[in-house]
Amino acid sequence: MDLGPHAGFIWAAYGVVAVVLAALVTWLVLDGRRQQQLIDELEARGIRRRSQRSPSQ
Amino acid sequence: MIAMQTLTQRLANPTRFMQLSGQLLPWIAGLAGVLLAIGLVMAFTAPLDYQQGHAAKIMFVHVPSAWLAMAGYALVAASSFGLLVFRHPLADVSAKAAAPIGAAFTFLCLVTGSLWGKPMWGAFWVWDPRLTSVLILFFLYLGLVALRSSIEDEALAAKLTAVLALTGIVMLPVIKFSVEWNSLHQPASVMRLGAPTIHPSLLWPLLVMAVGMSALFAALHLKAMRNEILRRRVKALRTVEVEDAAGLAGQPAG
User: Fold this and answer.
1) Contact criterion met (CB < 8 Å) for B55 and A47
2) How high does pLDDT run on average in chain B?
3) What is the extent of the structural domain holding B123?
4) Is B9 inside a domain boundary?
5) Is pLDDT at B253 greater than 60 in this prediction?
6) pLDDT at B194 over 80
7) The domain that contains B128 carries what CATH number?
8) How far is B151 from chain A (nearest CA, A)?
């Protein structure tokens, strides 16, 4: 694709948008997995939030 | 208004919010992907601008980033208002989640604007009122993130960050009207009184990219809010673990 004499500026602009948005998505997906993993580990040890406990606990 | 109030009241329960957002998130993310794919095809097949030629293609990512930089800050400020005035349980979650995303879009606005400015104005940066006010907005976003992370007490951090966010909302009208203060920037050509001055062959790709990037922002914000709710659950569970351990240690043996 011929983008003329300013092609470098155009590709750089679209490239930085792609990199930053991909980094945001990756960070949020990995962070979500990490938090869910921590919750699963805590609950596997029998720890429950007070609202989830039965009256006998 | 009543319907809006009912919706916000229904979403006040984080568990209900997690259920609803979990159902909505794939659809919003999918919509963003489809619109951005269509928008990119439209952007790269759009006719050349008669003055700027191909360089005007940078507009299709620069302008939506600029709109979302400001919309993101309005979201942070509205959420902060919701925390300070209505004490809505999810308001602080929303404000905290939106700040880094808004900062990222403001960064994109500055960088793509700089890459557009060099071939058109002959300089990557000029201390123009619009550029300077958006740079201040970027520092404001960073300030919100830094202030929150510097205070250990989460409730106090939320309140102080909300006060700063509401104070900083003065930047939005400054950015909006800065193009009228001896600026190199052209005046508004889409969001203005009367019809847009941009030709439809360039306006449509811009609008599709703007809606696509807005949908992406919404998906990122929902995901960040879900992560923050999970993070608070982890903290609550760890507190329970410590309290249970302390309670057992305090019981007499036998």
Assistant:
1) no
2) 90
3) 27-184+199-226
4) no
5) no
6) no
7) 1.20.120
8) 21
